[in-house]
Amino acid sequence: MELEAKQPVGESNNESEAQYEQSSFEKAINFLLCRGDLAKQRLEAKPVSFFELFRFASTFDKFLVACGILLALLCGIGLPLTTILAGRLTNALIVTGTYEGNNEFRRTGYTYVILFAIVGVAMVAISYTQYMCFKYASLNIARNTRSEYMRSLLRQDAAWFDSQKAGTITSQLNENIDKIKDGVGDKVGFILRGITMFATCVVIGFAFEWRITLVVIGLAPLSAILMSLSSRLIDKASTKQMKHNAECAAVLEESVMNFKTIASCNGQQTVLKKYASGLRMARKYATQIAAFSGLFDGIFYCAIYVFFAAGFYYGGYLYKVGIVKEPGDIFIVANAIVFGAYFLGILSPHLMAVTNAKVAAAVIYQTIDRTPPIDSSSEEGIEMLHSKGSIQFADVHFNYPTRKDKQVFCGLNFDVKSGDTVALVGHSGCGKSTIIGLLTRLYECTGGTVSIDGVDVRKIKISSLRNIVGVVQQEPELFNGTIKENVRLGKADATDEEIIEYCQMANAHGFIEKLPDGYNTMIGTGGIQLSGGQKQRIAIARTIARNPRILLLDEATSALDAESEITVQEALKKAAFGRTTIMIAHRSHKELLQMENGIYASLVKSQQFDEDLHDTAIVEEDRISQLPHFERSGTINSSFSARGSSSHFARGGAFNPDAYSSIRRKPAVEKELLLDDECLKQGRRGLWHLYRNCDGNYAKLGSAVVTSVLRGSEIPLFVVIFKLTFDGFVAANPDTMMRWLLYSFIGFIALGVFLLIVMFLANVFFGWTAECVVDSLRFRALSNMLHQDAVYFDTPSRSTAITVTRLSTDAPNIKGALDVRMVQIVNNFVALAVTLVLGIAYCWQVGLLGLGFTLIVLLLLIVIAKLMDKTNDTAIKEDLSGQLSIEMVEQVRTIQLLTREKHFCKRFDEKLDAALVLQKKCGPPEAVCFTITMVFPYFSDMVAYALGISLLYYGHAKADEVFASAMASNSGGWAIVMLSGCLNTFLGASASVDSILRLVYAPKSQKDSAESEMKVELCGNISFDKVRFSYPTRPQQNILNALTLRASKGQTIALVGPSGSGKSTVISLLERFYDATSGSINLDGHAVKRIPLAELRQQIALVGQEPVLFSGTIRENILLGVENKSDDDVADACEMANARHFIEAMPQGYETEVGERGAQLSGGQKQRIAIARALVRNPKILLLDEATSALDADSERAVQEALDRASSGRTCVIIAHRLSSIQHADQIFFIENGSVIEHGTHQELLDADGKYADLIRKQDLTS
């Protein structure tokens, strides 16, 4: 049929997202709210209003928030009342001349003590209930927002997903919604309570003495300004720190997840240098943050003491001249204003949390409210219950919205009749897979029409359209769960018998039955527990279950060996019977060969297939109706492939056999856990062991401890100086009073300046120490992981993903035991200890009572902290919603094509509900801890004064002693409040320390130690003699059984055979990812175990089926693990790999950034760079595991020729399912069940008419 190609049509407008620039008024407000560097700041979206944060709150949630707000206001009013009570008690102590036997004094004193108790009990009830209200409401709102956001994600079109940066979606789902939870939770209570407390304190101040209030109230705006400036400077440094931390995280994840590629290239040192460089840059800005924090905190505390001293000195003057009648009023005003100003000053992070929540909500709501042009949840359109399956492409124009400059289709025309089978062929990036995207309405054409049965697909209801179209992709996407559950995604009501039938049709039933749990076998995220061929067969079974009218096969059998492929092809023929089928493949078909001058025939010649196929094969060939001829097609890589797909090789498992290799039996897991504990058996002491691992940082750590101890002297010195103030007011002579107040004034100012210095130094030293120690542990852990044997990662609890998670999350947690939080721990412990001693020294009875009360509260807090830690750990471990959300986001297109959005949303909601129950269990202990820390200082005052009044009444103590001892107990209470804020983080760091140290001290590979002592320049002779091998985690299952094979210098040998026969294991043993169980492996007559690993891998190069590239430039990827190579060497290697032309055509050439996992390049381009990486090493032995499978026919031929040239003088070991690529090998070894069944040249094996010849016939090849 005639195919037309027209000029490109105009580009359609695509929605763009504009940034929201803040107004000057908003910038001024945000300056006061500490929003950072606002001169340059542009937000992703206009922040929502505060009330819009509660958009997804239920009526009950709104009731809880309203109750929380009311209680926070009551708390803000109630707490400052204690300053009045304390002031009145102080006044009674000052003005009462005789205490012993004074009933009026006793009655007055106990009246205030009882009021203390009433306020305290009320605050207990109010604080606990307030926290629980905000806690439960915020958890419910976050759960509902997550659910709605996930629903909106599953609605979005493919073009929207193409425009999203990697990790942005999951980051929004987690971090942004966590910010919303923060902004609607207890932070609201803190803000309202703080503002109400300040307002109440101001009212109290003006009510009792407005003159003193005017002097002291200047602290409030000063504290706000200081916090704002601090936040702006910290924000700048924090942004830069996060940037470098993100770069380090990318290096960490890429290197660990692809550790085999790193090891095979000897790239450990290259990666570690890059990681260390990023850590150094992040450490620089982290230390700046600690310095800014210490400096401004010091200035803030210095200001507090200056204003506090001024208030008392001025109040003393007013008392002296008779303006102030009661000295207690001075204590009330000064304490109240400083108290209110302090709580107003610490609101900055809480205000920032609410502002961040409003911005985060705006970004989240944008997605939730977005109505995509192609809405998979839409009920609009024609419901096609019955379809014939005819397809028409008429004058179709298309370009991907993210790359409008690249036209994919320029007037594409072709028809497919109902029931016909069509093959689509062409170069990589010509648009073959795009046709599938247009047929399923993942994308819409920019011009022309795509029709099914004469109906424009844009008029068909999307779910109806996708239900009549079944897709099997090149990279199969499976979901975490059982095999049965994955197949049932194709048909929700499928019975067990039907599932077995579908799997039999897909040639999957056999291997499934051999698994320990059969169809109930858990396959892991993305089907990671299965081999590529097994995953493909499950995906085919799932598609067959859907019974689609139109079948779209995108290289559907590419992952299968020849034996399985022919069986699955027959199954697909049965499945395609009566259906319209479109196939995408690099392989050829007989009918197209008859077009001698056509593109298809030239592609076949490129693959070196013989055109004289058997007549029997002609009969069995699929009938090809049409051949779309793409002219002027773009050359971009198809965007149809599922997001986040990755092969076993990309995740560090390229060399596992095609069997259920990753499913571990219980004894193996238990043994592995015992080994984990063995790693820390000697010297494991939690936090103590952390401090023993501060080599090179003990001077900084010692300086930090010393300055923190000095910082801890603040509260005891405050008690001593405050006693001078009390003594001054007790003095009968006004001049003596003013002299004592002057001493206290100077003392408070000196204390403030002292605090400024020691707080700055303590923060800097501890922050610097924390960064250095944690960076060292990170570096040592990564270094140790990159030098591990492959078996280390073979068990689920030590998988590469879990290792990355440990390093990413546990390392920052360790800082809680070393950074500025450690300043709080040390100084408050010191303050608590010294104040308790002071309390006993001033009045031993009151002091001992305070000590007992404090110890009880401390023990209670520790018990609660451990309970919280245990509850939080359980909640985190049992929360599976995060794992499911990542899976849903990465495989969203598969979910949409299966029309299973509602099913996955329901599953996600179930996981959220289960997690919510556990998260709510954390509420009560957290609320108790919050309540204790809020009211303890006031109960401490109450108990101390109750005993002190009694002691004064009976003549067992003096007034100044009782006052000083009570102040010491009260100040110790505040030390506990400050301590409790860091204690949970501090204790929680212990588990993280153990986790990281397991990685640091995991026994390193012994392969490069005493046994590896020879230095050999290899020639390339390889011999395997009676080699047996079983994976250490599955010793009962032999992979190789007395395997024997040889390759002489310069020979090319090929390994063929069914999946799981042990071919890839041979490569694993040559690279020494594993060692043979028995038998010998020799290179040039030397035992491979005696050759140092680095030297061995320097002379062996590996090219896998799926290329693994790393973030960085093309040059950096090619030179991974290689030194002393010139630009000419790189260019020559690229020339040999057929990569030089496309690289030098790029604007940046060899300095082009390839992106994460090489995302900026097509599959063929990535593969050619991987081949160049192998060739630049000038290896003596070249290992090719399906090295050209990702290339189109023309590129494959060119690269094959390059590899042929590269193999000259080298020994090559080739694994290939496509037998045409290995016909000219010097020796071909057919491996089955771990043994060589037959070997010889291509012709010798054909003459033997054995299993190899049978494979040849199955692939329609001739001699």
Automatic annotation (TrEMBL):
Pfam family, one: ABC_membrane
Originating species: Ascaris lumbricoides
Chain ranges of the ABC transporter domain: 391-640, 1022-1258
Subcellular location: Membrane
The protein's name: Uncharacterized protein
UniProt similarity note: Belongs to the ABC transporter superfamily. ABCB family. Multidrug resistance exporter (TC 3.A.1.201) subfamily.
The entry's keywords: ATP-binding, Membrane, Nucleotide-binding, Transmembrane, Transmembrane helix, Transport
PROSITE patterns with a match to the protein in the record: ABC_TM1F, ABC_TRANSPORTER_1, ABC_TRANSPORTER_2
Major localization class: membrane
Record bears the keyword Transcription: no
Signal peptide residues on this chain, from the entry's feature table: none
Domain ABC transmembrane type-1 stretches: 68-356, 704-988
Transmembrane regions listed in the UniProt entry: 63-89, 109-128, 190-208, 214-234, 289-310, 330-348, 740-768, 825-842, 848-868, 928-954, 974-997
GO BP terms, alphabetized: oligopeptide export from mitochondrion
Topology of the protein relative to the lipid bilayer: Multi-pass membrane protein
Highest taxon, organism lineage: Eukaryota
An MF annotation (GO) of this entry: ABC-type oligopeptide transporter activity
A GO CC annotation given for this chain: mitochondrial inner membrane
Classification via InterPro entries: AAA+_ATPase, ABC1_TM_dom, ABC1_TM_sf, ABC_transporter-like_ATP-bd, ABC_transporter-like_CS, P-loop_NTPase, Type_1_exporter
